[in-house]
Design goal:
Layout (H helix, E strand, L loop, with lengths): L3 H10 L14 H22 L13 H9 L5 E5 L23 E7 L2 E4 L12 E5 L2 H11 L2 E2 L15 E7 L11 H4 L1 H5 L2 E7 L2 E4 L12 E7 H7 L6 E2 L14 H16 L4 H14 L5 H7 L2 H19 L2 H13 L4 H18 L2 H19 L3 H11 L10 H10 L3 H27 L1
Antiparallel strand pairs: 1-4, 1-5, 2-3, 2-4, 6-9, 6-10, 7-8, 7-9
Helix pairs in contact: 1-14, 1-15, 2-17, 8-9, 11-16, 12-13, 12-14, 13-14, 13-15, 13-17, 14-15, 15-17
């Protein structure tokens, strides 16, 4: 809870002798009390002050999920193997009546280590082949029973079909003056030409699923397909088809390189050990991962929480402005006159409140450096040991719970789906507890 850097500054200031020896170990009782208070607070009142799952900011529905929900598309992929005794062996896909009778879509065929995506209708089926089927479970059970197939789970061969990073559904429109107008799906051979599995046709006759291979395409017809993103992008050439669904990814994932990634991370740590700034060290490691193609640059860009970046980017100049323009010092100096003749507890609370407020708009280091000299002046005017106020400044400079302006709070805001109101509700009470406990311990132990 207590920032280490302000305490190191404090330790340097408290090296001189005095009425009572103060050091970093003096903070231990305060730290333990604050930790215990925080744990007890959230243990007993967490259900009342922390947002529940329904209260959190709902994450936007992905384009893929919206398409699935809109057209009630199947999402479960079933894997089967053709045994030697199956009557399916020797038939072509069209002869198996996958679309006309069973309303299933064959997404891929695996034979050995080779995988054929969206196989052509005249592709022969053979014993030992593994099939990746998409459709309703009832239809699948009937198909498996009729052809005596075996369920087979082979995550290695069909793993690309299980993640939207590689494959997914897309909606394409037949534009006006398209050269495929008046042709059928069979004539343009979508599977053979593009390696794409047609799932649904939306036309003036309504939704058509299963077998619509002989349906004549007209301007404005929409085709729902399933396939790899690269093939879908190739199909959407803006001449035959126009893609209206933003694809989830545009590239196949790079091969995993754990050793190189580990070396980049170790290099950042080594640079830090040699005394280089942490920001420079870890930025160097991140750039190395991008340049070595360990992480694609597009993926790295999407991983950046730009809301947090702009939040902190706005706070840094605000904190510098408060410091360099003298606004913070001006405010504190005027409060000094108001504190003359008041009880020492009032002085402690005033200093703790200033440290808390400044830590919301500047780093705890900057708040400590700014307030320590002023705390010494206030202590001298109040006739108390200045080291107690310096200690209080160091402690309260980390009292940053009420707003997501602290770096740690900002980093968890978006992933946790929290809002400003959540921080104010849960952190507001915690801030008051932190302040009261800090002031009481400093007053009882060090004054």
């Amino acid at each position: 809870m207590i920032g280490s850097t302000p305490l190191l500054i404090l330790n340097d200031l408290l090296r001189h002798g005095g009425q009572r020896e103060l050091s970093l170990f003096s903070v231990t009782p305060v730290g333990i009390a604050l930790l215990a208070a925080g744990l007890l607070y959230f243990l007993f009142f967490g259900d009342y002050v922390l947002p529940g799952a329904k209260e959190r900011e709902e994450k936007p529905v992905t384009t893929q999920q919206r398409l699935i929900d809109t057209w009630n598309l199947p999402t479960t992929i079933y894997q089967c193997i053709i045994p030697s005794s199956s009557p399916l062996a020797g038939k072509t896909i069209e002869e198996a009546e996958l679309w006309t009778k069973h309303r299933l879509n064959l997404l891929a065929i695996a034979e050995g280590d080779d995988v054929l995506y969206a196989p052509w209708r005249h592709t022969p089926l053979a014993a030992g082949q593994r099939l990746a089927l998409l459709g309703d479970q009832t239809d699948l059970v009937r198909f498996v029973s009729e052809y005596e197939l075996l369920f087979k789970r082979d995550q290695r061969l069909f793993e690309h079909l299980e993640t939207t990073d590689h494959v997914g559904f897309a909606e394409l429109i037949v534009p006006v003056r398209s050269p495929i107008i008046g042709k059928t799906i069979r004539e343009i051979a979508v599977r053979k030409t593009y390696g794409i599995e047609p799932i649904m046709l939306l036309s003036g006759e309504g939704e058509q699923r299963g077998n619509f291979s002989d349906q004549v395409l007209q301007p404005g017809n929409a085709l729902i397909v399933h396939g790899r993103w690269q093939q879908i992008k190739a199909m959407a050439d803006n001449i035959n088809f126009v893609l209206i669904t933003p694809v989830e990814a545009t590239e196949e994932a790079e091969e995993s390189r754990p050793i190189l990634a580990t070396l980049c991370f170790a290099g950042s740590i080594i640079l830090a050990l040699f005394g280089y700034p942490f920001a420079v060290c870890f930025l160097t490691g991140a750039l190395a991962m991008i340049l070595l193609r360990i992480v694609p640059i597009d993926e790295a860009y999407r991983a950046v929480d730009w809301k947090t970046v702009f939040l902190l980017a706005g706070l840094i100049p605000l904190g510098l402005a408060l410091d360099r323009t003298g606004a913070a010092a001006y405010l504190v100096s005027h409060v000094i006159h108001l504190l003359e003749g008041t009880h020492v507890i009032a002085v402690l609370f005033a200093v703790g409140i200033f440290a808390t407020l400044f830590s919301l708009f500047m780093s705890n280091v900057a708040a400590t450096v700014l307030l320590v000299p002023l705390a010494v002046i206030i202590a001298d005017a109040a006739g108390i040991d200045p080291r107690s106020l310096v200690l209080l400044v160091a402690i309260c400079a980390s009292n940053a719970f009420v707003l997501p302006t602290h770096q740690v709070n900002a980093l968890i805001m978006s992933p946790g789906g929290y809002r400003n109101a959540d921080f104010i509700r849960a952190g507001g009470i915690m801030t008051v507890l932190y302040l009261v406990i800090s002031v009481m311990f400093v007053y009882i132990l060090y004054l």
